[in-house]
Every structure is written in structure tokens, then in C-alpha cells.
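tool=predict chain=A
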Amino acid sequence: MERTLMHDRYDDMYEACIRYYIQDETMESIARHLKLSRSSVSRLLAEARGSGMVRISVEAPQGSSSPVARSVAAIFGVRVHLVTVGDSASIATRFERVSKLAAALLRDSVRDGQYIGVAWGVTLSNIVPFLEKRSLHDATIVQMNGGTNVHDTSARHVAAILQSLSANFDARIVQFPVPAFFDYADTKRAMWRERSVQLVLNLQARLDIAIFGVGSVYGRVPSHVYAAGFLDEADLAQAKAQGVVGDVCTVLIRENGSYEDITLNQRASGLTPAELQRIPRRIGVVADPSRAAALLGALRARTMTDLVCDDSTARALLDLFDPEEGRKVRV
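tool=predict ok
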């Protein structure tokens, strides 16, 4: 009984910290949510600071303890870091709150000497402004997928993400100066034999931690991959005909998690789900309920060890999931 009470108090402490320090809620609002007095919330926050739970951000090794988060964690075998936003929140608010939590998690997770993999996209563009400075020794930021296309050969959006991460962590940058999608699969195979490309591929194989979003063909917020000229209309039509719902690192996936036989993936430059699985810590970030099908595919493909998302996205994910297949999907 005593152990249960201690666990409940720890859960309340963690929930109060997330809401106060990450989501900028008032103590009054937190007290209403936890059904506690304002003074009790104040004591929880003070205890959290005294115990070391709160540093600059909130440390959450087990993710959120809400029923929705626990269900996602139990089904897919991932650590879930959940932000409570609510169904009525604007998409901008949703992205902001999820991005703040993802930035805090990344900052607390990286270590000296690590190779840190980064995939560009709308989600990462939202995360980097919330990163707080943390100087690392001998760390390297490694781009995980090519970022150029015929409309943007300089990939300025990619460079901005990498430079922000480099500045925050005092880390070196290793860029991957190849297209997101090659025009021809033969060209990709030839480029993969080049020594300069091999150098980056070898570093990608040594990654200690990675962070990425999940793109969606049908997302409410357009994913960069499908809205910025990386794929033409014929490519998109072919992808949809083959059941593609989204991508991770520009590798296209179906809702069932399969990807190997999707034609466009022969031209894709990003790490495949199988290659991602070699990375010990993999943080996937999603802040859009309309990306639930793509998220389900990404989880079934075992692309992540940690999921940062909002409550509405988590519920949309569970709505798509068939409980009868839970034993087969668990990873």
C-alpha cells in the first residue's frame, strides 16, 4: 500500500512538472486537473526541484503515466512522452507544446562524444527554436537523409536545422549532400559507392541517438516531402496506389509498417526502418492527429524507441489500432 501511494505521488509530481515547466500552466489549473489544493501543487513542485527531477527541463524516463500513454507504450513497446493539449487546441498550439517537450527530451538525452542523427522536416523545424543551450564535448550532428531537389538544390531548410543544433550543442556537422529522392535507382546505387558518400553512410551506421518526425501524405499540416517538390504528381500517384500513408526519413511506409517493396524507396536516400533499428535511442515526434495512420505505420516498422506526441494524436492512433492484433504488433 505504501509503495502504491509513493508511486501515485511520483506520478502527480511528474504531471505537475510537465504542466508547469513545459506547458506553462498555472498552479490553479494544475490543482484542478490533479484534484489537489494549490498549496499541494506548490509542495509537489518544490519536492521535484529538491529531488533533482527538475533541472532546466523535466526528466521523464518512463514517459507520461496517463492511461492513453500507457496503452500506446504497452502495445508498441516504446517510451511515450505525452503532452496534454486537448482536441480544441489549434494546430499551432499543438505543434508548439509537443516541440517544447521534444526539445527538452533531446537536450537531456544527448551525451558527450555521441553521433546524433537528425532528419529534416516540418517537425524538426518546429523543435529547434525551443532547444536550450547545452555544450557537448566531441559530439557530431549527422544528417540522416538527403535534402535537395530540383526546386531547391541548396537545401536551405536542412542547413538551418543542422546549424541550430550545432550551435546549441557545440557539435560538428556532417551533411549528406545528396537528393532526398534520386531520379533513378541506378544513380543512387552508383552514388552509394562513392567514397564521400560512404563516409557519411559509415557515420550513420554509428549513430547513438536520432530524432525525426513522421511525414504524412494526408496530414493536416503538409509534410515537406509531399508539398515542396521532392516528388512529382506521378510519384505521388504511384505512392498512393501502393498504399503509402507517410514516411520516416523520406523512406515511404504503409499503415501496416511494410516498406521494402515500395518502388520509390529504391530512390530514397534516408535510413530504412531496419537501419534505424540499429540506433540505440530513436525519438519520433508527432503533433498532428491526422498523421495517425503514418504514425501507426512507423510504430509497426519499429522505427522508434521513444514517442513524443500530444493526447489527441495518441487517441487517434489507438482508434486506428485493432486490439485483436495487439500481440502481433507489440515490439
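The longest strand covers residues 281-286. The CA atoms of residues 19 and 68 lie 17 Å apart.
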